[in-house]
Write a structure and sequence with these properties.
Blueprint (H helix, E strand, L loop, with lengths): L14 H20 L5 E10 L4 E13 L3 E3 L1 H11 L2 H16 L7 E5 L10 H12 L6 E5 L1 H6 L2 H13 L2 E7 L5 H7 L4 E4 L1 H5 L5 H16 L3 E4 L5 H10 L3 E2 L8 E2 L26
Parallel strand pairs: 2-4, 4-5, 5-6, 6-7, 7-8, 8-9
Antiparallel strand pairs: 1-2, 1-9, 1-10, 2-3
Helix pairs in contact: 3-4, 4-6
Organism: Aurantimonas aggregata
Protein name: EAL domain-containing protein
Keywords: Coiled coil, Membrane, Transmembrane, Transmembrane helix
Length: about 290
C-alpha cells in the first residue's frame, strides 16, 4: 500500500503496483481488440408478461469470450469499457446487433438494451438510436432502454434532454436495478419512466423476512400509481413468482423462465450461429 507522498519526495512505485498496472493495461488492450476479433456477442434473456406467463420480449446482455481468459463477466469489463471510452463503440454495436436480431422476432416482442451513463456524455446518443432503429426497420415502441441511477446521478441538462429526445422517438425508458442506489425515489420525479425494474436483491430476499416483501409491495404500488410497468428481476422460484403475481407485478425476468442465451437458441427466425459452453448455462436452467 503506497502512503501519501511527503513534500518534495519522488513517488516510488512498488513492484506490486507496477504489476497491477500492467495487468490492467493488458486487459484494456484485449478489450480494445475484442470487437474486431469477433469476441463480443449478445445473449438474450426472456421477459415475461405476468398475467399470461408468456414471453413478450428479451433483454440484450453483452458477452465477451476471450481466447484465453474465457468468458469475462460484464461486471468486470463494462467498468473498464466506461473508463476507457470503449463503451461508446461496444454500446453502439450491441444496439445495432440487438435491433437487427429483434427484427426476426414476433412483431409484438420488445427488445431491451442497457445504456451506460458514459453514453450520455456526447449529444449523439439519440441520433445513434434513431439510426439503428431505421437500419433494423423496428418500430421505436419495441425498444426499451434500461438506465441505472448512475445516469441521473449527475442529472445534467444534457442527460435529461437526451432522455426526452429518446422518449419523443417513441422509445420506452426503464429504470434498472431500482432501489439499490442512493436516492431511488427522487430520480422517479426527474423523468417519466415507463418501467421500474425491481432489483434482484429484493426478489432474492422475499422469503427471508417481511422487510423485502414490504419494499417490493411499495415499489409495485408506486409504479402502478405512476402508470409505470414493474418488472421483477432475478425470479428463480415458483414461490417468488406467485408472491410477485399476487402483489401485481406486471412483468418478470429470471432463471425460472430462462437464462440469457445466444440468439440462435431462442427459436425465432433470423437466428445466427450456434454456440456451446456459454457462461449462462447452469444446473437450474429451465427450458420453456
Ligand atoms: P442488469 O441489466 O441488471 O442485468 C441483469 C443481470 O442479472 C444479468 O447479468 C443477468 O444475467 C442476471 N440475471 C438474470 N436473471 C437472473 C436470476 O434469476 N438470478 C441471478 N442470480 N441473476 C440473474 P449479466 O448479464 O452478468 O449483466 C450484469 C450487468 O452488466 C447488467 O445488469 C448490466 O448492468 C450490465 N450490462 C450487461 N450488458 C450490457 C450492455 O450491453 N451495456 C451496458 N451498458 N451494460 C450492460
Ligand atoms: Mg438491465
Ligand atoms: Mg438490473
Ligand atoms: Mg444490474
Amino acid at each position: 500500500q503506497a502512503k501519501a507522498d511527503g513534500k518534495g519526495r519522488a513517488r516510488l512505485f512498488e513492484p506490486a503496483m507496477d504489476a497491477h498496472l500492467l495487468v490492467r493495461k493488458a486487459f484494456e488492450a484485449d478489450l480494445r481488440a475484442a470487437l474486431q476479433r469477433g469476441e463480443i456477442s449478445v445473449h438474450y434473456q426472456p421477459l415475461l408478461d405476468t398475467a399470461t406467463r408468456s414471453i413478450c420480449g428479451y433483454e440484450a446482455l453483452m458477452r465477451w469470450q476471450h481466447p484465453t481468459r474465457g468468458w469475462v463477466s460484464p461486471a468486470e469489463f463494462i467498468p473498464v469499457a466506461e473508463d476507457t471510452g470503449l463503451i461508446d463503440a461496444l454500446g453502439e454495436w450491441v444496439m445495432r446487433h440487438a435491433l437487427q436480431e429483434a427484427a426476426g422476432w414476433p412483431d409484438h416482442f420488445t427488445v431491451a438494451v442497457n445504456l451506460s451513463a458514459v453514453q450520455f456524455r456526447g449529444a449523439t446518443l439519440s441520433r445513434m438510436v434513431m439510426s439503428a432503429l431505421a437500419a433494423a426497420g423496428i418500430s421505436p415502441g419495441r425498444l426499451h432502454l434500461e438506465i441505472t441511477e448512475s445516469v441521473l446521478l449527475a442529472a445534467s441538462e444534457q442527460t435529461l434532454s437526451t432522455l426526452h429526445q429518446l422518449k419523443e422517438l417513441g422509445v420506452r425508458i426503464a429504470m434498472d436495478d431500482f432501489g439499490t442506489g442512493y436516492s431511488s425515489l427522487s430520480y422517479l420525479r426527474c423523468f417519466p419512466f415507463d418501467t421500474i425494474k425491481i432489483d434482484q436483491s429484493f426478489v432474492r430476499d422475499l422469503s427471508t423476512g417481511p422487510e423485502a416483501l414490504s419494499v417490493v409491495q411499495l415499489i409495485i404500488s408506486l409504479g402502478a400509481s405512476l402508470g409505470m410497468e414493474t418488472t421483477a428481476e432475478g425470479v428463480e422460484t415458483e414461490a417468488q413468482y406467485a408472491c410477485l403475481q399476487a402483489l401485481g407485478c406486471t412483468h418478470m425476468q429470471g432463471y425460472l423462465f430462462g437464462r440469457p442465451k445466444p440468439a440462435s437458441e431462442l427459436g425465432h427466425v433470423g437466428a445466427g450461429m450456434p454456440q456451446d459452453g456459454t457462461p449462462d448455462s447452469g444446473p437450474s436452467q429451465t427450458l420453456l
